[in-house]
Write a structure and sequence with these properties.
alpha/beta, Rossmann fold, five-stranded parallel sheet, 5 helices, 5 strands, globular
Length: about 130
């Protein structure tokens, strides 16, 4: 079996670069997207084995992107690992209202991201 394909969706180029380096070092194939809409489009086109998704992004945020991906029968099975820098201040954020939506991601990791924890959680998602 070939390399597992991971889609990284984050609007911060430095974050994408760091995640790409960590994932490629662990022998994953990496596809990147820089906003929620691009993430949705690449999910449909590339059919990754897993998605790492930031929440706060332009165009479509991670909440909307997760919901759209999980509502597509052809993509709903793809596990999503959400990265968030907002968990500590959700009540002060406009995203607090969105937390009421059912976010169907399989796992969450706070930013700043510990690469070892990310790889451990991703491996667990890919086992199931």
């Amino acid at each position: 079996m070939g390399k597992k394909k991971i889609l990284v969706v984050d609007d911060e180029p430095e974050m994408v670069k760091m995640l790409r380096m960590s994932l490629e070092t662990a022998s994953y194939e990496v596809i990147d997207a820089y906003n929620g809409q691009e993430g949705i489009d690449k999910t449909k086109k590339e059919r990754p084995d897993a998605i790492i998704m930031d929440l706060m992004m332009p165009e479509k945020d991670g909440f909307v992107a997760c919901k759209e991906i999980k509502s597509d029968p052809e993509c709903a099975h793809i596990p999503i690992l959400v990265l968030t820098a907002i968990s500590d201040h959700l009540t002060q954020s406009r995203y607090a209202k969105s937390m009421g939506l059912e976010l169907e991601a399989e796992d969450y990791i706070d930013k700043p991201v510990d690469p070892n924890l990310l790889l451990e959680r991703l491996a667990r998602l890919l086992e199931t």
